[in-house]
Amino acid sequence: MKGLSAYTNTQKARLLHQLFPEEMAAFLEFTSNLCQTIKEDEDQNREDWKNGLFTFDFWLQLIRQIEVTDLANAIKQAQAFMEYSHEDCGFSELDEQLSIYWSDMHGKLLKLQSEIKT
Question: Residue 39: left (phi > 0), alpha (psi -120 to 50), or beta?
């Protein structure tokens, strides 16, 4: 196994997910809440930002990249992804995990849609 420093960010994220699958829902909720908090008071957060490694605008750009800008399309995509699977049965465990993930994402998007409508 290669050292952690040799992993890409995607590989590190995959490893964390594999090591702590039961924590992912809480982590994603935390991340979502953090993104919302940063956006709610953008000017004050920019002024208070003290992280020298990344600028506030860098983080804000990342937040905007993961925002859902077309909810109806996101729901359709999540629904389609729930049904995807590999032809090679060697990927069945991964396919099951991805199906669970996309089913969860689909449910959250539907919940968001119903909250927006009310």
Answer: alpha
CB 77 within 8 A of CB 109: no
The span from the CA of 22 to the CA of 16, in Å, is: 11
Instruction: Give this prediction's pTM.
Output: 0.49
- Closest by CA to 74, choosing from 107, 118, 43, is 107
What is the DSSP secondary-structure string of 85-118?
--SSGGGHHHHHHHHHHHHHHHHHHHHHHHHHH-
**Alpha carbon distance 92, 7 (integer Å):** 24
| pLDDT tens digit sequence for 74-105 | 999 999 988 888 898 888 888 888 888 889 88
